[in-house]
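chain below, 281 aa
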Amino acid sequence: MKCRAYAIKIIIYFVLCLVTIVFLFPFFFMIMKSFMTQNEAFAQVVQFFPKQLYWKNYSQLFDIQMLNWLKNTLVIVVFNMVVTPISSSFIAFGFAKMRFPFKKVFFTVMMSTVMLPGIVLSIPMYVIYTMLGWTNSALPLIVPCIFGGGALAIFLYVQFMRGISNEIDNAAKIDGAGAFRRYWQICLPLCKAIIIYQVVGIFMGLWNDYTGPLIYINDPEEYTLGLGIYYRYLTGSEAGIDISAGPKMASGVVFSIPPALVFFFFQKQLIEGVNIGSVKG
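prediction:
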């Protein structure tokens, strides 16, 4: 039985290692190509390792335009990371701890929006933002987070806050604490694990977001980093910019580093956030 158990473990680890290699190989291939010259990258015989590290592919990435796209991306990402947890947890506190007429109706209507595919809403939202004059700016990517950041985020906070003992809330009421103070000083600190989970998810989603900026932004000065890199290397030639394979791969590597680092350092919090949501649900 022990031999059989060890054999099963070996097979499982072998399969997992094989799957890991399959998923990591494109990233490894991209890194290696980013250090190659144009001739090496498009050699008839496929090369997996450069003969010599060619750093020029990286040095030419960080021009003024690229830094401007990075600034636009950080403005959107940081604003959402700060505002969304506050707004979604604030709305969730009302559903979880407050009493008001038609609370269940409002909560049901809000949760029903989960069934609507995001792509279905893209056209009406674009029309609304165009009428408001917000296109070609970061406003369509910033303003929605003020209103909760989505029904699923609010639902996660609601489920967690419902698990917080009402005795704590009642004790605060007896001490004279108002609703906002109970939210800010009691409920919000207890939601630390969910806040970290949400913040990391927001960063990963917005840093890699391509569809949103593509729909609402047409001005090159307002591009995010993902959209700017796409348009820079889309055409076959651009004045003053090397668009050969090496710079393309280098831009992909640089663009992939922040999400990889965030996931590496916060993977425990991501798993805990998922588990909290499932247990409290």
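The chain has 14 helices and no strands. The chain has two domains: 2-56, 60-280.
thats it, cya
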